[in-house]
């Protein structure tokens, strides 16, 4: 910082157009994604997510191959001859046939990884900002608090879609190639739109839920416990009430991931009667439950956004 | 220095900006204006009816812990919203994100992203300011150069010393060339050489027309930088102005002056006849005396007349308590320690 360099170090006048806060929210989202990708655990969870995808990807291929090539043949496994069609029966549980349930099931199973990934994201991306006091760095820049939330939601949405919507869309493309692609792509275009709709519902609901819970509890361990409570304990409770106690199927609404699954199947235009396990609440009830969760998260975030103590 | 500071009501010419908060900066509006701003945290009053106006130069913000300094800075940077009153930057409500294009903030905490390099962190902050990639890179380099971190910015933040962290925080505050720089304890943890460099940097920024509001506990460093201070106590601005102006406001408090003369005892007797002299203490060893007097202006005028009339040879005359510490002591009712 020698005095003679002072003149050289002055800022030249800015002649460009400064981007608005929405663009800054995008930059914030990008920075948050990079922040997550620096965590080894994140890569481990993404690898798990890829494994689920590959199971469905090769499963679809296997089902078609067995159906067309080995329908009446036996396959030797550990010296035992098993009819190839038995494999398709086993794989049939996952509905690996390019139907609405293929994508519904795929996203259901990805949910296990997504929930853990989002608990990590909530802690790293949001909780740390509150807990360690990094917020003033962000909020002193020309963005509002809503833009901060939007930026973080974009990052969370990126990971949700990376694990669910994008691979589900890849499965749709694969299914088209396995069957008659001209008719499949045209006849099942609504499935692709359904996948996108399902992804949007997941993105909106989960990003709001991550933000709200991370702002509330902030630390990794309590956050993981809250998520376990929402996605594991409430699910067990719902299963016990409906399947164990033969309670009203509305109790299943306690299981948020099941609610998302039902709304997803509604987007995919699946027949409610084909959903397992039965009985299930109506699609509209699941939609209303998700709407309620989103509204509660938004109200809580609004309260926190307006709270003055947020940066104290 | 072009600083305009005061605790008066906003001038009538500024009423136009008071009616309705603007969404674009108005060049004639005060750079930073607090209008009867109060801030409650639940039942605790952190800031009480603060009215303050800054237009340029360097202003130091001093006060004891819990006096409301950090709350005032957070209101100025739009981190908080006043419960009552208004805070505006060039006529824009400080809460509005547009106002923050004019403000650079260096917070006191250093909760940075430890696994990022300093350069990357500053660059990301530049992107948040709304600059595209190229401009963000250029500004990052300029800001790092300004704070003397160009050569060391590629290391991860977790390996930085306290002083290096302060410089990185300062760099991110300078990125968008803000008119108003709000610095919360910017000198904390910086070694003497680094401190001198930063003080020079602050002076250069002020010379470029920036307005700096600096909160610091280190009054000696602040005194080297500026003699404009805002003193806070119990959520109020106790005084704003130069140290001398503030001292003059404190006429009710005695000023201490050391006077070196040939005959201190004789001088002490004469001084006690002056109406403003409160107490005199003679130090025979150093042939001097310390007099405590109210109303410094009137006292010095009377002392001058007395010295001429009595033909007293005064070797030196030294005010003892015009330092910020002494003034703080008076205002805060304590030792002046913050």
Annotate the secondary structure layout.
The complex is a heterodimer of chains A (312) and B (338).
Chain A: H1 21-37, H2 40-69, E1 74-77, E2 80-83, H3 84-92, H4 100-132, H5 135-139, H6 145-163, H7 165-178, H8 181-187, H9 189-217, H10 220-244, H11 256-267, H12 283-306
Antiparallel strand pairs in A: 1-2
Chain B: H1 15-19, E1 32-41, E2 44-54, E3 57-63, H2 69-76, E4 84-89, E5 92-93, E6 103-106, H3 118-128, H4 133-146, H5 162-174, E7 180-184, H6 192-207, E8 211-215, H7 219-225, E9 228-233, E10 236-242, H8 243-249, E11 255-261, H9 264-271, E12 277-283, E13 288-293, H10 296-310, E14 314-319, H11 324-332
Parallel strand pairs in B: 3-8, 3-9, 6-7, 7-8
Antiparallel strand pairs in B: 1-2, 1-4, 4-5, 9-10, 11-13, 11-14, 12-13
Helix pairs in contact in B: 3-4, 3-5, 4-5
Characteristic terms for this protein:
heterodimer; A: 312 residues; mainly alpha; two-stranded antiparallel ribbon; 2 strands; disordered C terminus; B: alpha/beta; six-stranded mixed β-sheet; four-stranded antiparallel β-sheet; 14 strands
How does this model look, in words?
The complex is a heterodimer of chains A (312) and B (338). Chain A has 312 residues and is an all-alpha fold. Chain A contains twelve helices and two strands. Chain A has helices at residues 21-37, 40-69, 84-92, 100-132, 135-139, 145-163, 165-178, 181-187, 189-217, 220-244, 256-267, 283-306; strands at residues 74-77, 80-83. A two-stranded antiparallel sheet of chain A has the order 1-2. The relative contact order of chain A is 0.11. Chain B has 338 residues and is α/β, with parallel strands linked by helices. Helices cover 33% and strands 26% of the residues of chain B. Chain B is built from eleven helices and 14 strands. A six-stranded mixed β-sheet of chain B has the order 6-7-8-3-9-10, with helices on both faces. In chain B, helix 3 packs across helix 4 and helix 3 (118-128) packs parallel to helix 5 (162-174). The two termini of chain B are 26 Å apart. The interface between A and B is large, with 39 and 48 residues.
């Amino acid at each position: 910082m020698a005095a003679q360099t002072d003149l050289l170090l002055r800022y030249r006048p800015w002649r460009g157009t400064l981007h608005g806060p929405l663009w800054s929210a995008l930059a914030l989202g990008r920075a948050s994604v990079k922040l997550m990708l620096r965590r080894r655990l994140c890569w481990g969870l993404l690898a798990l997510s890829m494994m689920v995808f590959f199971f469905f990807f090769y499963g679809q291929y296997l089902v078609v191959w067995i159906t067309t090539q080995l329908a009446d043949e036996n396959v030797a496994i550990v010296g035992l001859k098993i009819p190839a069609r038995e494999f398709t029966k086993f794989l049939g549980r996952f509905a690996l046939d390019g139907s609405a349930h293929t994508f519904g099931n795929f996203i259901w199973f990805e949910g296990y990884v997504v929930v853990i990934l989002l608990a990590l994201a909530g802690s790293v991306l949001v909780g740390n900002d509150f807990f360690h006091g990094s917020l003033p760095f962000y909020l002193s820049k020309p963005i509002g608090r809503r833009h901060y939330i939007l930026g973080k939601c974009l990052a969370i949405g990126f990971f949700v879609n990376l694990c669910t919507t994008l691979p589900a869309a890849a499965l749709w493309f694969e299914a088209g190639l396995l069957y008659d692609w001209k008719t499949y792509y045209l006849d099942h275009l609504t499935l692709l739109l359904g996948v996108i709709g399902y992804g949007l519902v997941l993105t909106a609901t989960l990003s709001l839920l991550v933000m709200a819970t991370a702002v509330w509890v902030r630390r990794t361990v309590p956050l993981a416990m809250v998520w376990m409570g929402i996605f594991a304990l409430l699910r067990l409770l719902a299963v016990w009430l409906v399947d164990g106690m033969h309670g009203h199927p509305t109790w299943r609404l306690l299981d948020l991931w099941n609610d998302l699954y039902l709304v997803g199947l509604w987007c995919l235009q699946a027949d409610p009667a084909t959903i397992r396990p039965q009985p299930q609440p109506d699609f509209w009830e699941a939609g209303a439950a998700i709407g309620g969760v989103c509204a509660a998260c938004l109200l809580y975030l609004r309260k926190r956004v307006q709270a003055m103590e947020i940066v104290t | 220095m072009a600083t305009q500071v005061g605790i008066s009501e906003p001038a009538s010419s500024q009423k136009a900006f008071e009616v309705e908060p603007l969404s674009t900066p108005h060049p004639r509006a005060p750079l930073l204006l607090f209008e009867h701003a109060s801030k409650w945290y639940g039942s605790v009053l952190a800031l009480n009816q603060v009215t303050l106006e800054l237009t340029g130069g360097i202003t130091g913000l001093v006060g004891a812990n819990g006096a409301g300094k950090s709350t005032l800075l957070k209101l100025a940077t739009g981190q908080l919203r006043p419960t009552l009153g208004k805070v505006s930057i060039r006529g824009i409500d400080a809460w509005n994100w547009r106002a923050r294009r004019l403000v650079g903030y260096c917070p006191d905490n250093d909760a940075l992203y430890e696994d990022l390099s300093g350069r990357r962190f500053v660059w990301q902050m530049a992107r948040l300011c709304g600059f595209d990639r190229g401009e963000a890179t250029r500004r990052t380099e300029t800001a790092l150069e300004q704070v003397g971190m160009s050569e060391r910015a590629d290391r991860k933040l977790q390996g930085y010393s306290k002083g290096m962290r302060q410089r990185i925080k300062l760099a991110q505050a300078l990125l968008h060339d803000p008119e108003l720089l709000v610095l919360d304890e910017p000198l904390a943890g910086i070694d003497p050489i680094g401190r001198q460099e930063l003080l020079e940097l602050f002076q250069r920024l002020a010379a470029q027309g920036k307005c700096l509001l600096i909160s610091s506990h280190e009054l000696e460093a602040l005194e080297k930088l500026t003699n404009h201070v805002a003193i806070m106590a119990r959520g109020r601005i106790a005084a704003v102005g130069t140290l001398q102006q503030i001292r003059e406001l404190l006429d009710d408090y005695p000023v201490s002056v050391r006077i070196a003369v040939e005959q201190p005892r004789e001088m002490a007797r004469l001084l006690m006849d002056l109406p403003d002299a409160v107490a005199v203490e003679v130090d025979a060893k150093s042939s001097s005396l310390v007099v405590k007097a109210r109303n410094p202006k009137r006292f010095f005028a009377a002392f001058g007349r007395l010295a001429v009339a009595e033909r007293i040879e005064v070797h030196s005359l030294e005010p003892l308590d015009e330092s910020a510490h002494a003034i703080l002591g008076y205002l805060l009712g304590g030792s002046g320690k913050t």
